[in-house]
């Protein structure tokens, strides 16, 4: 685990970390962008730029408190940049604060610089045929070890001042002493883990973490008295934190005209110099590099509003007038051995596969980039060019979706697809349930309509009873539409179509692992209907266990998912329907009495069709119209004999059966009229012999009147089609949706000829 972590749930995939990471050490996953530790150089850019604070530095505050509580003495070393970060208090007050936290001694890290002076001087004076790169900035060391390994030999084989002072303290005070380095530098946390220097410093804390410790311990630094430092007072080492500081400290005379010594800082300058060095374009003797803008004072570990220039100023001031009291312990004053200061570096380069031109092309094409002009190089993905992004996709660091123009295009396409699907679903729904009007003017239908109007707007539970096909579901829909919940969902469940256990999980949902196959949490239909209405059809068929659960919902408005322990509040109106005799169920024990009474608050009983025959004609005509649309035929009427037979039929399947029979007849009829022959045979059998032609004179008179009337309607219609098509019989038949041969038969029957209509204007358009 590296020092920079991602708080996954905070990451919003804005790619700002990808964009700002100088070494592209960020991998974008499906839901968040994470740091690839093998590539990370600890510069902290991602931490700084993440507006969501999804990138954080691994906290060591808990660990330090445990260390301070331990047996071993713990020594604090303040990094050379501290005067730029704790400028509003005196150094001695900072020492007091640290001692209050429990540190036994406090040192200035700049003394570590001075420990290195001789080694540096020796190396500088030793001729080398390659430029030397200073190694005190851990980010620079990581950059070269992990990304420019061919420059490894250029790294000066010397430890950093932090390691030098760490070893010095341990040597003088005792090997068991714990050394904690306090700094603005996140990469220091990386450095102390590196095997060649792992013995020197036990922990690195950022100034930000330190500030947190002071806050947690209610240590108010400005109110504290001053306490002297315990280490050795440094001199020019105090300039080390700013650009050029190391040259001052090591006595190197670098000036503008001397190309032998170069010093620079900041990501861009550093990367440019490294590339120049790698390409051999410049050959100085020594290069001092610091990754952060302004040098160590630009480190990311503590935010404050000062610019690198004002921080530099604070370092200068402190150097000129330190005002830092010192009470150096005797064991640091005595001459003693200088700690080991040499260091080796290793190749940590993590090679990523390089894609072929063909692979890059394929990836570009998969994000709609077929020609060069398609490569917008907009940078929204975090990579400067589309090709760099394609390479990252190949290497598994990035995803196609990161491309903004591509994602927008996909969204647009998805939007169109969804809109089409929505429209289709709407149409299907309309066909299935579109006609919610309750047809009928007979006394019992009017009574049902009246009850719907009364109960609709109330929250009352409704029980709808009646035979199958009498319109129980239609009534439930009408109640929902009349309620204040009409803009919320109406969820219909047929309780007989699912097994008991499935029905339970369907209604109340389930928790992951509740049963085999429950691979994740699933919401139930009660939750889906929250705020709206649930219609439980065939409620008489549910098991006693479900009856008990249902009672609980009705009583306390809570459901419990299968396998769950926490109840969930729901606000759902219940409408139930049954064609069973629930009273009998109560008596026989298969239906709970308490549930029966909870359901039976307001009951609507649907009359069977045989008891509302006055409405049959109306129903027939409405269903004829609907069937016309569904089967795409123009149907103008129904033969009176067919109606007469229907009036004699008992309709066991009720209105649903009537609807189906009309639709079937609409399919079967050869012309625009439904006749007795188009109905199932049982209807012909219901007609008395005389009805087929030899009926009573009264009947006969009525029937022939009606037949005449219908024939006249049919003839007029045919004439209109012919007028519209200028006498073109084939076209007229097509417009009428009638087979040509049938149309011709009709012409003969009505003694009409296409030629009569040539050149005639239509009087009325056909319906
Ligand atoms: N009064 C009516 N007016 C118009 N259509 C009706 C009427 N009654 C029923 N229907 C239609 O008849 C069909 C059956 O109605 P519905 O499904 O509501 O009956 P049901 O009593 O719930 O049947 P089941 O008990 O079998 O579930 C539906 O297509 C419905 O639109």
UniProtKB/TrEMBL annotation:
<dbReference type="InterPro" id="IPR058031">
    <property type="entry name" value="AAA_lid_NorR"/>
</dbReference>
<keyword id="KW-0238">DNA-binding</keyword>
<protein>
    <submittedName>
        <fullName>AAA family ATPase</fullName>
    </submittedName>
</protein>
<feature type="domain" description="4Fe-4S ferredoxin-type">
    <location>
        <begin position="32"/>
        <end position="60"/>
    </location>
</feature>
<dbReference type="InterPro" id="IPR002078">
    <property type="entry name" value="Sigma_54_int"/>
</dbReference>
<dbReference type="GO" id="GO:0043565">
    <property type="term" value="F:sequence-specific DNA binding"/>
</dbReference>
<dbReference type="InterPro" id="IPR017896">
    <property type="entry name" value="4Fe4S_Fe-S-bd"/>
</dbReference>
<dbReference type="Pfam" id="PF00158">
    <property type="entry name" value="Sigma54_activat"/>
</dbReference>
<dbReference type="InterPro" id="IPR002197">
    <property type="entry name" value="HTH_Fis"/>
</dbReference>
<dbReference type="Pfam" id="PF12838">
    <property type="entry name" value="Fer4_7"/>
</dbReference>
<feature type="domain" description="4Fe-4S ferredoxin-type">
    <location>
        <begin position="2"/>
        <end position="31"/>
    </location>
</feature>
<dbReference type="InterPro" id="IPR025944">
    <property type="entry name" value="Sigma_54_int_dom_CS"/>
</dbReference>
<dbReference type="InterPro" id="IPR007202">
    <property type="entry name" value="4Fe-4S_dom"/>
</dbReference>
<dbReference type="InterPro" id="IPR003593">
    <property type="entry name" value="AAA+_ATPase"/>
</dbReference>
<keyword id="KW-0547">Nucleotide-binding</keyword>
<dbReference type="GO" id="GO:0051539">
    <property type="term" value="F:4 iron, 4 sulfur cluster binding"/>
</dbReference>
<feature type="domain" description="Sigma-54 factor interaction">
    <location>
        <begin position="438"/>
        <end position="667"/>
    </location>
</feature>
<dbReference type="Pfam" id="PF25601">
    <property type="entry name" value="AAA_lid_14"/>
</dbReference>
<dbReference type="InterPro" id="IPR009057">
    <property type="entry name" value="Homeodomain-like_sf"/>
</dbReference>
<keyword id="KW-0479">Metal-binding</keyword>
<keyword id="KW-0805">Transcription regulation</keyword>
<dbReference type="InterPro" id="IPR027417">
    <property type="entry name" value="P-loop_NTPase"/>
</dbReference>
<dbReference type="Pfam" id="PF04060">
    <property type="entry name" value="FeS"/>
</dbReference>
<dbReference type="GO" id="GO:0005524">
    <property type="term" value="F:ATP binding"/>
</dbReference>
<keyword id="KW-0411">Iron-sulfur</keyword>
<dbReference type="InterPro" id="IPR009016">
    <property type="entry name" value="Fe_hydrogenase"/>
</dbReference>
<keyword id="KW-0004">4Fe-4S</keyword>
<dbReference type="Pfam" id="PF02906">
    <property type="entry name" value="Fe_hyd_lg_C"/>
</dbReference>
<keyword id="KW-0408">Iron</keyword>
<dbReference type="Pfam" id="PF02954">
    <property type="entry name" value="HTH_8"/>
</dbReference>
<keyword id="KW-0067">ATP-binding</keyword>
<dbReference type="GO" id="GO:0006355">
    <property type="term" value="P:regulation of DNA-templated transcription"/>
</dbReference>
<feature type="domain" description="4Fe-4S">
    <location>
        <begin position="359"/>
        <end position="420"/>
    </location>
</feature>
<dbReference type="GO" id="GO:0046872">
    <property type="term" value="F:metal ion binding"/>
</dbReference>
<dbReference type="InterPro" id="IPR025943">
    <property type="entry name" value="Sigma_54_int_dom_ATP-bd_2"/>
</dbReference>
<keyword id="KW-0804">Transcription</keyword>
<dbReference type="InterPro" id="IPR004108">
    <property type="entry name" value="Fe_hydrogenase_lsu_C"/>
</dbReference>
């Amino acid at each position: 685990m590296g020092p920079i972590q991602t708080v996954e749930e905070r990451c919003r995939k804005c790619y700002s970390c990808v964009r700002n990471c100088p070494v592209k050490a960020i991998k974008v996953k499906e839901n968040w962008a994470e740091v690839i530790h093998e590539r990370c150089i600890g510069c902290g850019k991602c931490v700084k730029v993440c507006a969501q604070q999804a990138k954080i530095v691994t906290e060591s505050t808990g660990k330090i408190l445990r260390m301070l509580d331990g047996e071993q003495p713990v020594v604090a070393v303040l990094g050379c940049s501290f005067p730029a970060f704790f400028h509003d208090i005196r150094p001695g007050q900072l020492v007091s604060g640290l001692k209050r936290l429990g540190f036994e001694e406090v040192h200035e890290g700049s003394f570590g610089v001075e420990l290195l002076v001789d080694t540096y001087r020796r190396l500088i004076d030793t001729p080398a045929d390659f430029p030397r790169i200073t190694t005190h900035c851990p980010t620079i060391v990581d950059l070269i070890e992990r990304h420019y390994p061919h420059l490894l030999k250029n790294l000066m084989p010397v430890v950093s001042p932090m390691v030098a002072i760490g070893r010095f303290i341990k040597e003088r005070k005792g090997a068991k002493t714990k050394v904690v380095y306090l700094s603005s530098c996140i990469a220091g946390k990386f450095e102390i883990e590196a095997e060649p220097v792992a013995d020197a410093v036990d922990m690195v804390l950022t100034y930000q973490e330190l500030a947190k410790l002071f806050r947690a311990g209610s240590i108010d630094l400005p109110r504290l008295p001053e306490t002297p430092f315990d280490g050795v007072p440094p001199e020019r080492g105090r300039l080390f934190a700013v650009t050029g500081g190391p040259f001052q400290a090591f006595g190197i005379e670098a000036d503008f005209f001397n190309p032998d010594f170069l010093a620079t800082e900041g990501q861009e300058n550093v990367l440019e110099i490294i590339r120049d060095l790698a390409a051999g374009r410049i050959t100085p003797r020594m290069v001092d590099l610091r990754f952060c803008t302004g040098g160590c004072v630009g480190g990311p570990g503590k935010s404050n509003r000062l610019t690198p220039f004002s921080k530099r100023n604070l370092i200068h001031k402190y150097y000129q007038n330190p005002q830092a009291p010192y009470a150096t312990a005797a064991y640091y004053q005595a001459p003693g051995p200088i700690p080991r200061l040499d260091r080796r570096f290793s190749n940590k380069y993590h090679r990523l596969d390089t894609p072929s031109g063909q692979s890059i092309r394929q990836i570009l094409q998969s994000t709609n980039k077929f020609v060069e002009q398609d490569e917008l190089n907009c940078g929204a993905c975090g990579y400067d060019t589309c090709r760099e992004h394609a390479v990252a996709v190949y290497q598994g660091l990035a995803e196609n979706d990161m491309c903004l123009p591509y994602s927008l295009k996909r969204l647009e396409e998805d939007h169109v697809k969804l809109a089409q699907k929505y429209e289709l679903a709407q149409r299907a729904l309309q066909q299935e349930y579109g006609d919610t009007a309750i047809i009928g003017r007979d006394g019992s239908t009017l009574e049902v309509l009246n009850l719907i109007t009364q109960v609709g707007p109330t929250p009352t539970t409704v029980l709808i009873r009646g035979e199958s096909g009498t319109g129980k579901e239609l009534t439930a829909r009408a109640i929902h539409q009349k309620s204040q919940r009409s803009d919320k969902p109406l969820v219909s469940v047929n309780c007989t179509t699912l097994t008991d256990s499935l029905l339970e999980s369907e209604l109340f949902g389930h928790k992951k692992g509740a049963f085999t196959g429950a691979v994740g949490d699933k919401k139930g239909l009660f939750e889906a209907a929250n705020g709206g209405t649930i219609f439980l059809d065939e409620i008489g068929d549910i098991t006693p266990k479900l009856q008990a659960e249902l009672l609980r919902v009705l009583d306390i408005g809570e459901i419990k998912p299968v396998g769950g322990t926490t109840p969930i509040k729901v606000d759902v109106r219940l409408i139930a329907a049954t064609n069973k005799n629930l009273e009998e169920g109560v008596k026989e024990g298969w239906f709970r009495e308490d549930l029966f009474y909870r359901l039976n608050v307001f009951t609507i009983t649907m009359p069977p069709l045989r008891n509302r025959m006055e409405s049959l004609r109306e129903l027939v005509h409405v269903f004829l119209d609907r069937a016309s649309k569904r089967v795409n035929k123009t149907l103008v009427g129904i033969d009176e004999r067919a109606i007469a037979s229907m009036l004699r039929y008992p309709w066991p399947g009720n209105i649903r059966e009537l609807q189906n029979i009309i639709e079937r007849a609409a399919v079967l009829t050869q012309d625009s009229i439904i006749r007795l022959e188009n109905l199932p045979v049982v209807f012909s059998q219901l007609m008395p012999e005389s009805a087929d032609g030899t009926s009573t004179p009264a009947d006969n008179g009525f029937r022939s009147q009606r037949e005449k009337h219908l024939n006249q309607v049919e003839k007029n219609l045919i004439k209109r089609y012919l007028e519209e098509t200028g006498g073109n019989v084939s076209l007229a038949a097509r417009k009428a949706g009638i087979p040509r041969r049938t149309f011709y038969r009709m012409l003969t029957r009505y003694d009409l000829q296409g030629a009569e209509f040539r050149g005639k204007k239509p009087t009325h358009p056909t319906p």
